[in-house]
Task: inverse folding
């Protein structure tokens, strides 16, 4: 099993699509939320609140990890915001169990500028909503340790999904 984690804009979904095109089966935690609830994680956050969001993220991540698929894509907050964050404890424990059994975890990331472009944060924003770019960078720094634990770090800045798929699968 290949487990893909990383911040928004890391390219996990693009890489999963490339791997799927090469015959790998894919479990996407975000898609699982939509299939089971009819709502995206962001819609759950807006309409049902943070607690419902965290529950949906955790349950969909655990379901994806238990799916038996070749590739698992987890949402950016599935592991929590730090190694001490209880929110991600169950997911991190399941990943540790899978890694101990031979699964490979990859921490996908890119240059900050690339991540922000992919996440749509490269355009001017109203100051009334604060600084999304600053919040994003703060969150990225805080989560780096949870993404990196038991993982090989992969820079996806190039956007060459074919080469990155070859690197990860060795084929």
Result:
């Amino acid at each position: 099993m290949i487990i893909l984690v990383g911040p928004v804009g890391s390219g996990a979904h693009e890489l999963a699509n490339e791997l799927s095109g090469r015959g790998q089966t894919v479990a996407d935690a975000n898609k699982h939320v939509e299939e089971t609830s009819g709502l995206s994680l962001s819609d759950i956050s807006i309409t049902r609140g943070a607690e419902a969001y965290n529950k949906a993220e955790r349950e969909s991540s655990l379901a994806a990890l238990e799916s038996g698929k070749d590739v698992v894509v987890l949402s950016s907050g599935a592991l929590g915001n730090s190694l001490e964050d209880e929110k991600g404890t169950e997911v991190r424990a399941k990943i540790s169990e899978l890694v101990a059994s031979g699964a490979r975890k990859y921490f996908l990331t890119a240059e900050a500028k690339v991540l922000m472009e992919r996440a749509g944060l490269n355009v001017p924003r109203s100051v009334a909503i604060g600084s999304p770019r600053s919040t994003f960078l703060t969150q990225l720094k805080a989560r780096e340790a949870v993404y990196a634990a038991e993982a090989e770090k992969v820079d996806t800045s190039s956007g060459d999904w074919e080469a990155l798929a070859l690197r990860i699968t060795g084929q």
